[in-house]
Amino acid sequence: MQVEYIGAFNIVLGVLARFWPVWVGLAIVMGASFLYKKKLGLYGQLFDSGVGIVGVGICLFWLFTAIFASTVAPFDPLSQVPIMKDALPGAIEPKSGLIYLFGGDKLARDVFSRMVYGSQIVLIIAPAATGFALMVGITLGLPAGYYGGKIDTVLSFLANLVLAFPVILLFYLLVTPGIMETPIPYGLAGIFFLFPIIFFSVLFWTRYKNRPDRLYILLGLTLILGGWVYAGLVFDKDPLKIIHIDPNQLNIFVAVVFASSPGVFRIVRGLVMDIKTRDYVAAAQTRGESPWYIMLWEILPNARGPLIVDACLRIGYTTILLGTLGYFGLGLAPESPDWGTAIKDASRLLRSFIHPALPPTIALMSFVLGLNLLADSLREQSMKD
Amino acid sequence: MLSFVLRRLGTMALTMLCLTMIVFFLINLEPNLKKLAISQTEMHTSAEQLESWLVNHGYRQNFFARYGQWLGIVPKQPVTDPATGKPAQRFSFCNDPVVPTFSGILQGDFGCSTKFKTTVASKLFPALSATGILMLCVLLVMVPVSLLIGILAGMREGSRTDRTLSVASIASTATPEYVSGVIFTVIFASWLGILNGSAASASQGITFYNFTLPVMTLAIYGIGYIARMTRASMVEVMTQQYIRTARLKGLSFGSVVVKHALRNALIAPFTVIMLQFPWLLTGVVIVEVMFRYQGFGYTLVEAAGNNDIDLLLGCSLVSVFIVLITQLISDVGYAFLNPRIRVQ
């Protein structure tokens, strides 16, 4: 059976057409943001500069691609059609008449669909891991910067200890199949996932200590939701069977959070040491507010600018880390469609075929670029005030 | 100053002790030992044979005793040959001593590589020197290029040159080595065919043909970051009073930049360049694997993949040492270069 091809122009048209839900979503969000940009605060100001628009555009593009992956991708990322092995871009799959827009890889899977589904993995793990790293870094960085002294010495030493590890070595030690037999990843997960619960509990406690009606509702919500997610993630014993994470993914998640939380810790600590000398902190101390109230409700909101910028950069960096893990075949399943694994598979065969290598590389690069541009533009806008 | 350096060296020694102990613990986890025993014995060995291999080669001694032996503060015990009952060498290919001796890192003995069947030192140091050459080439490309970009961009803040170069450097920080490596290989090796996509032949002799791609790939990720830091530092210097004074004196813009601004603007990038080494280390691993260059990174991956305990420990010791020593140099050097900073 002969495989037929379509021309380059048709490939471009085909790709643009496949992304139609993404274009619709982008048009709605970007249009609405343009209209109401005066009322949207910092986010609205992003639309004042070309760099900001491009950054927001790229990030939203990948966000919508991940959301609508099943509509955008014509094929299942894991299904193999033997005749399409190493097919060149634009090959028409004989049975369904659908097109392998970016060709097939060495296992005869559609490169385009794999790239689209790969965005799902990246866009779930990277922001979530960054979120946890922020929680850990903030919860430990606040007291280290505010109290100083012994707490600071111990915590900083621990942070420097982790930072002195070359990332790649850390991954080779922490993300191995063997380590899943030991309690180490679960122990680390148990510690890390506790931080968001502690953070929100203390946050609400300090604020609404004297207003039990609000306090009990918020604390209850935090503990129930937090406990539910915690049970699902760490022990895989979600009573409702909704939250579930593969042991492999848990391992990756823990390793990434472990590698990036010391960086957040250092930034938060530095910011707190700077902000705690301000007058409004002194005023709060004179009022007799508790230290944790001052840290969480006086200092933290005023440190949000640099933290948001750092979070954007960090999501990009986490994406790169995930790619590194995939590139070395650590943690993720070998057939997983994530970009790093795809790059690894394709780069082994660059001498014979180059087309499977380009889509995942460009996807990864453009997503990180979008986040970096976003961060740069955010930094510029927040400096203006 | 001296007491500052001494205190830092003390912290450094403590950090290294803690880190090596963590690495030692993680490498010697039960599943890893099992994997090692399986790879070192013949196929289809029973569980008892695996266990006896581990016992015979001294892997079942107390954790702290073994760590002490590796460190060189506890004498290394020879193993007893189960056939004769006499003390025997642990690994015959490493000339291990048959009498208890202090022989660890402190005595300069890095141990024995089970994968390459030789001493760690004879594997690790040639690899390190190969990587050293690579690093040197990368630095020779990366530092001048990034400083130039940073200075050109920061000279006139907000100009068209500044905008273009800034976006270019953001783009380069968004390109990790495994991405730029693939793209460069596609362009220069597959399409144009002017460069070699593999650096395996570079261990025999380095040529422009086989060494350019790894160097380019490794340099590009760092260039953007250093250039941005240089730009920020340059922008700050250009707003200083003394620059305005020099301009008002009637000096030309070029000579103000070269004579007055440059010296002060280059202090901050020095720190950034030194702190870039840990990042380069990860990049080195990726690039050496991608281009099959037999250096430190390649050795590290081989050691980790085959659970070669002593070799991996040696690799981590070296990489942690590099990270810590560059931090120290950057702190001390910063105090030297910037007279406004005084260390206590």
Automatic annotation (TrEMBL), chain A:
Membrane topology, as annotated: Multi-pass membrane protein
Any Pfam family hit: BPD_transp_1
Main location group: membrane
Gene Ontology biological-process annotations: transmembrane transport
InterPro entries cross-referenced by the UniProt entry: BP-dependent_transpt_permease (IPR050366), MetI-like (IPR000515), MetI-like_sf (IPR035906)
Domain of life, per lineage: Bacteria
Listed Gene3D superfamilies: MetI-like
Protein name: Permease protein of dipeptide ABC transporter
Origin organism lineage: Bacteria, Pseudomonadati, Pseudomonadota, Alphaproteobacteria, Hyphomicrobiales
